[in-house]
Amino acid sequence: MTKREKNFPRMAEVAKLAGVTVMTVSRALRSPAKVAPDTLKRIRAAIDKTGYVPNALAGALSAGGGGKTITALIPTVQHAIFADTITGLSAALRPEGYHLVLGETGYLSEEEDALVAAFLSRRPEGFLLTGVTRSPRTRDLLKRVGVPVVETWELTNTPIDMVVGYSNEKAAHEMTVWLAGRGYKRIAFVSGPSRTNERARRREIGYRRALKEQGLPVLKIFTIGAPAAPQVEDGAAILPEVLAEKPDAIFFTSDIYAVGAIQEARRRGIAVPKELGIAGFHDLAIATVIEPKLTTVHVPGREIGYIAGRNILARIRGEPAPQLSAIPFSIVARDSTK
Amino acid sequence: MTKREKNFPRMAEVAKLAGVTVMTVSRALRSPAKVAPDTLKRIRAAIDKTGYVPNALAGALSAGGGGKTITALIPTVQHAIFADTITGLSAALRPEGYHLVLGETGYLSEEEDALVAAFLSRRPEGFLLTGVTRSPRTRDLLKRVGVPVVETWELTNTPIDMVVGYSNEKAAHEMTVWLAGRGYKRIAFVSGPSRTNERARRREIGYRRALKEQGLPVLKIFTIGAPAAPQVEDGAAILPEVLAEKPDAIFFTSDIYAVGAIQEARRRGIAVPKELGIAGFHDLAIATVIEPKLTTVHVPGREIGYIAGRNILARIRGEPAPQLSAIPFSIVARDSTK
DNA sequence: TGGGCTTATGTTATCGGTAACATAACTGAG
DNA sequence: CTCAGTTATGTTACCGATAACATAAGCCCA
Known about the structure:
The structure is a homodimer.
Chain A: H1 11-18, H2 22-30, H3 37-50, H4 56-63, E1 69-74, H5 80-93, E2 99-104, H6 109-120, E3 126-130, H7 136-145, E4 149-152, E5 162-165, H8 168-181, E6 187-191, H9 198-214, E7 222-223, H10 232-243, E8 249-252, H11 255-267, E9 277-279, E10 296-298, H12 301-316, E11 324-326, E12 330-332
Helix pairs in contact in A: 1-2, 1-3, 5-12, 8-9, 10-11
Chain A binds a DNA duplex through residues 2-5, 10-12, 20-24, 26-27, 30, 34-36, 39, 54-64.
């Protein structure tokens, strides 16, 4: 790649073909009303002929703005809830002509730091980040440059800029209380990799608080290790250990684990929900495919993405946008609990 | 956004702070070996102090290249197979410092045309496209600009540039033959929205060819209408109509439909696979969650993305890359067929 | 000790556009 | 008929960086 773009025609070529200067072509593209109809026609024809596509990089540089892109950093698209978020965001962005640049952090905080810096160099006009816990360095950087930032999937009173999400603690609390209300006494909790996943951590806090309030025993808490997208097998593998605690219900921080556990319970001849209640989190598609259908917490992945997108766009336009948007979750009672 | 970027510090500020010209800063960043160790230290300090992040837009413009981005256009991230492709692509790109710009076409060809043009303005260095059928306008445009393009999820002898995928026709053919081999005589076929989904179309062709070869009757072919990501309910809803054809097996173009059908069959008291065999396509996670576990065609979503990424990068570097990469699929026999 | 070579840094032009101002041609009212 | 106001287009400077070339020290060996 030396000093000239591949085969992209430039505005200058269009201009020459139409017998005008580049400025007139530029105007024809961004404010056609200011160009004589006849000239406009010639320019349009020239654009067609050359297959000209404006260079947004150059345009943005000159206009002094960003490139009409929003950057989203999520742990992985493999997880349906984040895919939902992306779809929601994408839906918010499209009508305004904004593009989505996607980065996967693999649940790794260092990776997020690296990606923020790297993506910043592309001068996005906004950021969607997952979670609310991050390195001070990244916080500072983002604050300093003053780009609209939405943190998602959790709430906090001290966002970098804005938050869109729900309280994972409250959600887990609510589910635990609900389970207690169904008569379960020994409710176990199986967490995702809490070291790298703050959402899992908050859920554990909510679970503990609920047990204390209800006067129920806190059983040994199990944590699934791998900092990656959850796998059904993980849930199956951990079930035996959890059973050693003699729980009458198990609350998993992900439907995926819960499904694995149900399958494993079936293999072991344990009746769900008769002998053992099982609850998940997220309300994924598999929750209604597994038999018995899974009791879980429905979380609004798509709305989070959409609202986040709307808020970022509002900020860009200089309109007011809420610092905190709480999106409601809900308990979905199905057949895996009594 | 007037004439100056928000709060992003510029190289000039770093330069002043370090007591050098911008050129020296630029060098410190891209070829530090050419800068005196002492100067380098001062520059690094200045960068830290200012929180400077290079403006890749300007850099790319000047260097005459693209912005180290690859654009991927997929129907939707909602569908796990495309999420897989994205993950694979992302994995290939990351080590080389390339960024991924994502567009969702919603299975709409016109949307794809619009997105290709829009994304082209960002001067990506490569494109990943889904499928091999597209408007001549888009084909021409992409050919003309000479950007590396990989078309995916199908094969063709006349790609715009490169293809990475497998033959959907062959895959469906193989599954149909396999079903015939298990003794099924009246094999029905339920297609996804074939008007907007060429993959579904090709699978139908494979299915028909197999039946003809096996001397089996072609039953009425059912097509699920909505041009969107498949839903479990669609499969359940269509089952009664399909049953009117008295099939002894049904081959769905997606696991998602197949799962819905299995659930509906259970509701109706039809024994799967005893009275009715059911097969899907894609080998999604739900295929092993549903009971009986689903017989399906395993397709290599992640590999497709990864290989596509590798090929694009090879092209960018001027290395040879295969015009056609066939990635193997496989039949996965489980319990939903006899 | 001086000219050739290396090393470190600066200068100038340029990437492909757009903002702001300048100018030329045309319009219409007094 | 003239001059102000409009409309259509051109000129110049600049966005933030990098390539290519230029220059100034420092170094070495004959």
